[in-house]
Amino acid sequence: MRMTFRWYGEGNDSVSLDQIRQIPGVEGIVWSLHDIPAGEEWPMERIMQEKVWIEKHGFHIDVVESVNVHEDIKLGLPSRDRYIENYKRTIEKLGQAGVKVICYNFMPVFDWTRTDLFKEMEDGSTALFFEKALVDQMDPMELVRKINDNSTFTMPGWEPERLQHLTKLFEAYKNVSQEDLWDNLKYFLEQIVPVAEINGIKMAIHPDDPPWPIFGLPRIMTGKASIQRMLNLVDSPSNCLTMCTGSLGANPDNDLGDIIRTFADRIPFAHIRNVRVYENGDFIETSHRACDGSVDITDVVKAYHENGFTGYVRPDHGRHLWNEKCRPGYGLYDRALGIMYLWGVWDSLERERIRAEQQ
Ligand SMILES: [Mn+2]
């Protein structure tokens, strides 16, 4: 298990690289060039600048999250070929820079969706919250306004320039069924996976968050069957999954331990976090501790340990503690606590394993 931490870049994150260095066992920064619009080719100078800066602080740059996929690719428009070409060039450059994993997602229009970014919990901390009934009724434009009013930072996936054309996008997706979206994913993967292979990169799709269709938009990466189908679209060691326990865990039907055990060799990157799911379908992002939420984090870590997992891990989101001012879900404190919990479970499993070997 190789521990990493997501960081949004100098001047774009409340957390500093020097702070991250003091969290035990963090060896890599999960990074991106957040100002480059989806569909554009990443300039090599910018990639190298970021690499030099992160490495200077003692971290590796092996994992990029995300290289966003242009909507025309998801919509299957003729213009997609131009954007896919740009995507290939970006993969090549990231490979040259030494990147090993590219995380991306294939969710139409919206990246992750929540209704409240700072929902107060029993202990006075706040956390990301999803109210199912509200999303079922809400006009998506209203949600966008709420998200942008509530955050001092631009949210990844919610960039104003992408959302200006929201009405048009919704119109365009009216003609795209789930099966069409599968076809468009296949087309994309068939083009990019060979390029990833040559460049020593694993493409790791992030599951949909939450893992069901919202606002009438199709969503396809929702559970075990869809992961299997995605991996079969292009059967290559470079066509992989970012296993996110928080996203998939929002649907209690998903058996996360089983998914990890089944697809372990195709998971180069793991997001580990907990969610508490309520009977009405609402969910809130709790601490990592297993008993605080609905995800059995100890079993999740055990599933990775059993498979001798050597991939990258990050704590994904955390709560906002001790009045920290930070990007929603991306504070320092709770993610650091989460990492220590993950190490605690992992180290005790390691100790057992070594003991058993010695007997
Ligand atoms: Mn995730």
From TrEMBL:
GO terms for biological process: D-glucuronate catabolic process. Its cofactor is Fe(2+); Mn(2+). It catalyses: D-mannonate = 2-dehydro-3-deoxy-D-gluconate + H2O. Belongs to the mannonate dehydratase family. One of its GO terms (molecular function) is ferrous iron binding. Signal peptide: none annotated. This is Mannonate dehydratase. Keywords: Iron, Lyase, Manganese. It is an enzyme of class 4 (lyase). HAMAP family: UxuA. Coiled coil: none annotated. The keyword Iron applies. Pathway: Carbohydrate metabolism; pentose and glucuronate interconversion. It comes from the Bacteria. SUPFAM superfamilies: Xylose isomerase-like. Its EC number is 4.2.1.8. InterPro entries: Man_deHydtase (IPR004628), Xyl_isomerase-like_sf (IPR036237). Catalyzes the dehydration of D-mannonate.
